[in-house]
Design a protein that fits this description.
There is one protein chain. By secondary structure, the protein is of the alpha/beta class. A four-stranded mixed β-sheet has the order 1-7-6-5. 41% of the residues lie in helices and 18% in strands. The protein has one domain: CBS-domain (Roll), CATH 3.10.580. The chain starts with a helix and ends with a helix. Bound molecules: adenosine monophosphate. Adenosine monophosphate binds next to strand 3, strand 7 and helix 7.
């Protein structure tokens, strides 16, 4: 990567690459697991953020968490889905970043997570930063660089 491209990447913040909150599928704390599973299956995502009524980030819910929770001895006990709330089983201890964090710092966090939530200093949800958005951007820079090299 050229020095200019390198500087461009270093100058990026989470804000430049994140998916804004209004485009992110989410569920609420008191939604039943049945609703959460519907959102996850219909959207095709493996996990989505959990927000409270004031749009504050409170956790993450995933297909794996839900299915593990209703796994009986020999079958999935689907009849339990309407009676359990998302807040009872969600993952509460989740990392989050702020919009103004340099992209290079957030990059380290998506090594261990497919996406990282973005929230302001009061915990209000702003969006998510996904591995896909990061890879797309790095791929673009890489090919722009190759094109430049060919012309020189
Ligand atoms: P990706 O890097 O695009 O494959 O996304 C990784 C994960 O981020 C997905 O499996 C979802 O859990 C989450 N994700 C991506 N886009 C969205 C979205 N628009 N709404 C909710 N979750 C998303």
């Amino acid at each position: 990567m050229s020095l200019i491209q390198d500087q461009q990447i270093k100058g990026l913040t989470v804000r430049d690459l994140m998916i804004p909150g209004e485009k992110v599928a989410h569920v609420q704390l008191n939604n039943p697991l049945e609703h959460a599973l519907l959102v996850l299956v219909k959207s095709g995502y493996s996990a989505v953020p959990v927000l409270d009524t004031s749009y504050k980030l409170t956790g993450l819910i995933s297909k794996t968490l839900i299915l593990n929770h209703i796994l009986g001895l020999e079958r999935f006990e689907m009849e339990r889905l309407p009676n359990i709330e998302v807040q009872e089983i969600m993952e509460k201890d989740i990392p989050s970043v702020t919009e103004d964090l340099p992209f290079m710092d957030a990059l380290k966090m998506v090594i261990d997570h497919p996406f990282v939530c973005v929230a302001d200093k009061d915990g209000i949800f702003d969006g998510i930063l996904t591995r896909r958005a990061i890879l797309k951007r790095l791929n673009r820079n890489f090919y722009e660089d190759r094109q430049k090299e060919k012309k020189e």
